[in-house]
Amino acid sequence: MTITHTLDGSRLTLLFEGRLDTNTAPQLEEELKTALNGVTHLTLDFAQLVYISSAGLRVILAAHKQLSKSGGMALKNVNKTVMEVFEMTGFADILTFE
Amino acid sequence: MRNTFLKWLFLFIAAAFLLTFGVSFFIQTEQARENAVNSIKLKMDDVQKQIMENRENIAVIRAIADASALAKARAFAKMIELKPSLLNSPRELENIRVRLDVDELHVSNEKGVLIACIPAEYRGYNMAGSKQSGAFMPALTNPGFALAQDPQKKGINGEIFQYAGVARIDRPGIVQIGYHPKRLRDAMEVADIEKLYAGFRIGKSGRIIIAKDDRIVSINDHWFIGKSLQEYGIPPEQLRTEDDFIVTIRGTRYIAMARNYEGYTIIGVLPHSEMYVGRNDMGVLLIVCNLVLFAVVFMLVSFLVQKVVINGIHKVNRSLEKITKGDLNERVEVKTNDEFISLSNGINSTVSALKDAIAEAKARIDAELELARAIQISSLPNVFPPYPERHEFEIYAAMQTAKEVGGDFYDFYLIGERHLAVLIADVSGKGIPAALFMMTTKTLIQSLAESGLAPAVVFTEANRRLCENNEMGMFVTAFMGILELDTGKFTYVNAGHNPPLIRKAGEPFEAMKTHAGFVLGGMEGMSYRQYELFLDSGDKIFLYTDGVTEALNQEQVLYSYASLEAALNTENAAQMDVRRLLEHVSQELDRFTASAEQADDITMLALEYKGRRDQ
Q1: What is the pLDDT of residues B187-235, one digit of tens each?
Q2: Hey, of B408, B437, B472, B518, which one would you mutate to test binding to chain A, going by the most A CBs within 10 A of its CB?
Q3: Domain covering B195-275 in this structure, CATH number
């Protein structure tokens, strides 16, 4: 999985490409530790994300909790497969989609 | 390290340089001073010797001149005895003067009055009339009298002139001759103290000064002749010792020495600057040589250190870096010298020991994980049929674990006599944390369910408790249903889990209609909705985790929900009991994944309602 960062002031957009699963979730977790410094708004662009597992959901939930105290987190370009996972797990009810 | 070393090396060499230079500068200074003093001393010795030699020369010449003058006077006296009449003949007197090669001739009578003279105008002069001529008066009474006077300057023209005289032979009287002592004059001129300075120079611009009675008599600057030494710049108190001293003469510093000889004061002076010329030249040479030498030493040592030590250390560091990054197969091989061989061997044996220790620890951890896995699995109900005396339902469950400890689990238990709870769940993540979270969840839900709470209440409460102290941010998706055995009423709740499939009599398996609530433990304050449906005899429910639908084959293709539904709905599957059904799905799955490694736990549970006990 590759993650591309685009920082605009305190707004960070991460573009995902590949699978967000048990193997790649720690990478995202590690990157967010440093990337979220001073960031108030986080947008996750899932246009190129093909799969998400529960490990990936865990990291997204953690980011969501962290950013809900500042500006918030939103997801965009979520494909059908991934959206189904969000719906099935109830994440669709708590996350913001653009 | 290299920089530190070079810094110290530089400091050390600089210190050595300064020390060498300082010591040799000090020695050179002492030497220069000693040389200066010696050279002044030698010159003064020479001056002293010159004065002495001059005096001796003059004395010898004087003795010869005196003897010759007296011989001439005696010859003249003999001539007068032989021919007294010549006294009256100026022509004969002049003749004699020329023959005797003298300038003046004087002859007196018995009273000392001159009776015959050249020059003639002295005739009648009484010899007793002056101190100089009076010295010859004893000749009047002493026939053996002879006197050669000291040469002295004539009052008239300052020329050096000498008189010699004897007693007359024919009768009492004085015979005297006067002459210019040419050789003596020449010798005296050579011996002139005033000109002595010119013959002696000390070094390049050092010189000799001679004084008599504190008046300068010989010096290069004629203006100072006759001036006192004090006026010239040499204080008199310095003249008392023979040690060297420093004076400043017209703005220039000199090292000087003085000595007294035969009434003269001989002073030698040498400019201070000149004294140290040799030392300064030597100093410059020394600095250049030392700089070259030390630069060579510095570069050589630095080069050797680089070659022998630094390169070795860098090599060791590179290996250590690899080892630190986890490559325990890296070996340090620096064999440049004994110390590095020892260091390399030390590191290699340490790494090797570390590797063994890690392997041992890994084996132990693996064993413990396996044990944990075994405990985890054994905590699930795994005896089938679990309730042989019960005829209202058939249940079968299976969990095919992945290599790593996962967080899947299923559960079922009777609540009282009339209710059966079934549960399937999947904890996010893997490993020991997931396993522990699973055990907690399982126990928590069971205790809540067994206390008779409705499924939605059980989940709401379980969520609340799981959110407490959940620093790891773990969560679990879960589906739970409670079957009322008497009526077939199935009450269920879903917390983010894959919806189970249901097969009503005569229909295919299809997804159960649920609206998924949020996962358990993910967020505080979540509440869950429960749904209900009624099962008739022969209806089946199939619960599973995403390990089934997301199983991958070697082409990284997901098994998918559609495949699962298809497998459940194959023609002969309709006749299968729950155990066969699960085995069938399992086989289908194995066929799909083939030799691909299983990444996640695969958990399935199937329940068939057989109808009321009394039916």
Answers
A1: 666 667 777 777 788 878 888 888 888 888 888 877 888 888 888 888 8
A2: B518
A3: 3.30.450.20
